[in-house]
Design a protein that fits this description.
Layout (H helix, E strand, L loop, with lengths): L22 E8 L6 H9 L17 E7 L2 E7 L10 H16 L2 E7 L5 H10 L9 E6 L10 H11 L4 E4 L5 H11 L20 H17 L8 E9 L3 E10 L2 H8 L4 H18 L2 E10 L7 H6 L4
Parallel strand pairs: 1-3, 1-4, 4-5, 5-6, 8-9
Antiparallel strand pairs: 2-3, 7-8
The structure holds guanosine-5'-diphosphate (GDP) and magnesium ion (MG).
The site of magnesium ion (MG) has 4 residues, from helix 1.
């Protein structure tokens, strides 16, 4: 099983109260799948609130992470990867949600892989030229700098990127490094408006425990399934109850075909058991409570093609 390094925090919650003249801004993290958006958000916010994976497109929900550093509060919106491969209603919903995010933000972090710029990156950059994003500062984050052997090789690439779009800043970095993430915050801060903080200084996310539970089950599902399971699978929380220091959670993994159901359950139910155990342990760590997690698997074919259906699962 692939492991995820524990994220280290770029942003240490500041116990002090709000400064006299605070800054606060909404920041979108956009980029094609697999460039490291979730890794970056985790490094910035220091909590595993957005799931990472070697597979593309595990983040379908808009995830909010909050980070307060010095006099500035950064409110990060993770966006679903710009979808180009799958053609169903799911894509329309996802692209609409990216545009919705762009209309609301103060600044955009456009994440690409350092030294690379392909057609999928170009599609995302085109979204940034849409009316919703017009005039907003866009910072080019050239991620995976560690994969570039000689930094001097990057200079001509950066020049070409500057010719493509009037980026506000150019920041080559490795999203996996906390000090790089901290440096990025320092570069972004002056671009954010002076206005009161929206959240408590120690806030990390406004997502509910229920939402986090679905995200974590989904992450484990994709990690244990490798490439076997299509991205059209999802997780629905059927029941979430709090009893003192204990949570009782029933969740259903929804798949499109009978064959997928068998793969998720595994021989003798072994795989579903492992998914459930890993998800429960992570939830217990995250919530600081005991968790009883019951998982079910259900087949609902064609759900990814049905927009009304998607809305009922919480996709906007
Ligand atoms: P997303 O789809 O844009 O959210 O990308 P993820 O954050 O899930 O990352 C995709 C893959 O890139 C994962 O395997 C990450 O471990 C890897 N990755 C992210 N940041 C870096 C980095 O700075 N350097 C290297 N070498 N790999 C990275
Ligand atoms: Mg992601």
């Amino acid at each position: 099983m692939p492991t995820t390094p524990e994220p280290s925090e770029a942003c240490e919650p500041d116990a002090a109260s709000a400064p006299a003249d605070p800054r606060c801004g909404l920041v979108a993290i956009v980029g094609r799948p697999n460039v490291g958006k979730s890794t970056l958000l985790n490094a910035l916010v220091g909590q595993k609130i957005s799931i990472t994976s070697r597979k593309a497109q595990t983040t379908r929900h808009r995830i909010l992470g909050v980070c307060t550093e010095g006099d500035t509060q950064f409110v990060f919106l993770d966006t679903p990867g710009f979808q180009t491969r799958h053609g169903a209603a799911l894509n329309r919903v996802l692209n609409r949600s990216v545009r919705g995010v762009l209309a609301d933000v103060d600044l955009v972090l456009f994440v690409v892989e350092a030294g690379k710029f392909g057609p999928a990156d170009e599609d995302v950059l085109r979204l940034l030229q849409s009316p919703q994003a017009a005039g907003k500062p866009v910072v080019l984050v050239a991620n995976k700098l560690d994969t570039i052997r000689r930094r001097a090789d990057l200079a001509p690439w950066l020049q070409r990127m500057a010719a493509r779009f009037p980026f506000a800043e150019f920041v080559p970095l490795s999203a996996e490094r906390a000090d790089d993430a901290r440096r990025l915050l320092g570069i972004v801060a002056p671009h954010l408006p002076r206005q009161p903080w929206m959240y408590e200084p120690d806030a990390l996310t406004d997502r509910s425990e229920r939402f986090l539970a679905a995200e974590i089950v989904r992450e484990k599902l994709f990690r244990f399934m490798g490439d076997e399971l299509p991205y059209t699978s999802t997780v629905v929380i059927d029941r979430f109850t709090e009893e003192g220091e204990r949570r009782e959670i029933d969740a259903t993994i929804v798949v499109e075909r009978d064959a997928h159901k068998g793969m998720v359950i595994g021989a003798g139910g072994e795989r579903l058991k492992r998914i459930g155990t890993e998800a429960r342990l992570e939830l217990e760590r995250l919530l600081g409570t005991r968790v009883q997690l019951t998982l079910w698997v259900q087949v609902r074919s064609g759900w990814a093609d049905d927009e009304a259906h998607l809305r009922s699962y919480g996709y906007e």
